[in-house]
Specification:
Length: about 375
């Protein structure tokens, strides 16, 4: 959801009749792109942002006239706000339901920005979907909760497994203000500490070698694996080869995140034990998109992922928490934390939908959130 330019909490306001929220059309795209450039000027140089926005707003395979993206017009008819909406089919206990994921939530800086944000959020949550999903910071969280939404604290958590602990710690210090000359001076010392750790600390500091082999994960194998794994959850997404292929292609083009890796892990009989999709980023933190496995085999698949990322030069591996995997992740040395920025936000008028999410009976990964599709 990621709304910008919203200030302190306030009760919902009512427009004065000169402003309006309406469905976005293809004719609005250039104005929306211009608005994005004004609200997020720092992001315009990172990759093909305009091409990505065109893809997710106008070409996504789930787009439907009943759940359009929304724009806010000010009193002059100028587009001063936008909220992208991506419909997503799901199943609740085998019953089809309609979800909608918000993205690219932005409003023009100015005196009416709070009103624009509230009206866009109100219109989105009043749509025909059974479940609304958003990701955003504290301002977005306040808006959504004001309109009856809730925060999933479990799905807001991240897990991180350091692979090169000293250099990972140095990268954290860099993000928290340690200047570049100091990081440059400490880098050789940290590299030496990481190299000596297995010798000084013994087996406890070593990554176990994976038992099984991995190979390229096909879209069909991923679809089968997600269907089987989701069958154990009350709430799960629904994909087909076209929609899953589209979103994987979208992910592969995000080169700034690293090199997208799709790996199927096979057991001794050649059957798929599980899979993982992640961005390999040598010298950085490799972000996991999705991790899945057959029952009792998640530990083996996680071992393969960690070893794969370590061989590729990653400092750490990190991802969104699946509560069902918490025990395995903890046993493999992961730490759990919130990034201090983004919350996983949900809204539904159906208590059964919210109950499934809050009791950790939902198969919702980064494929179903704004992290995956947002620019």
């Amino acid at each position: 959801m990621g709304i910008r330019r919203v200030t302190k909490e306030a009760p919902p306001e009512v427009g004065d009749g000169r402003d309006r929220v309406r469905p976005m059309t293809g004719r609005d795209l250039d104005d929306v792109l211009a608005l994005y450039g004004r609200v997020f000027p720092q992001r315009r140089g990172g990759g093909d942002v305009e091409g990505h926005l065109r893809e997710i707003l106008c070409r996504n395979p789930w787009r439907a006239g009943t759940l359009p993206s929304l724009v806010y017009e000010d009193e002059t008819g100028r587009i001063a706000g936008c909220l992208g909406v991506m419909p997503r089919p799901m199943l609740l206990a085998g019953r089809p339901i309609q979800a909608a994921v918000s993205h690219t939530f932005m409003v023009e800086p100015g005196s009416r920005s709070r009103l624009a944000a509230l009206e866009l959020a109100r219109a989105f949550l009043s749509g025909g979907q059974d479940l609304s999903i958003a990701e955003g910071g504290s301002p977005s969280r306040r808006i959504l909760e004001r309109f009856g939404g809730a925060t999933s604290h479990l799905l807001s958590l991240r897990w991180t497994r350091p692979l090169r602990p000293s250099r990972y710690l140095l990268s954290l210090l860099g993000r928290r203000g340690l200047n570049a000359p100091a990081r440059w001076a400490l880098r050789p010392l940290c590299a030496t500490a990481d190299a000596l750790a297995p010798l000084l600390l013994g087996e406890s500091s070593r990554l176990p070698r994976p038992r099984w082999a991995g190979e390229e994960l096909t879209t069909g194998e991923l679809l089968d694996g997600m269907t089987q794994m989701g069958a154990d959850r009350a709430l799960r997404p629904v994909y087909d080869p076209e929609t899953l292929g589209w979103i994987l292609g979208l992910l592969a083009r995000r080169k700034e995140r690293g090199s997208l890796q799709r790996v199927a892990v096979r057991d001794g009989a050649g059957e798929m034990a599980g899979w993982y999709i992640y961005y390999l980023k040598p010298g950085g933190i490799s972000e996991v998109v999705q991790l899945g496995a057959r029952k009792m085999l998640l530990g083996d698949v996680l071992d393969h992922l960690l070893h794969h990322a370590w061989r590729g030069g990653a400092l750490a591996v990190s991802g969104q928490l699946d509560p069902a995997a918490l025990q395995t992740l903890a046993a493999k040395g992961s730490v759990f934390h919130h990034d201090g920025v983004s919350w996983f936000l949900v809204h539904s008028k159906d208590p059964a939908v919210l109950a499934a999410i809050h009791r950790a009976d939902a198969f919702l990964t980064r494929l179903e959130g704004e992290w995956c599709i947002g620019p």
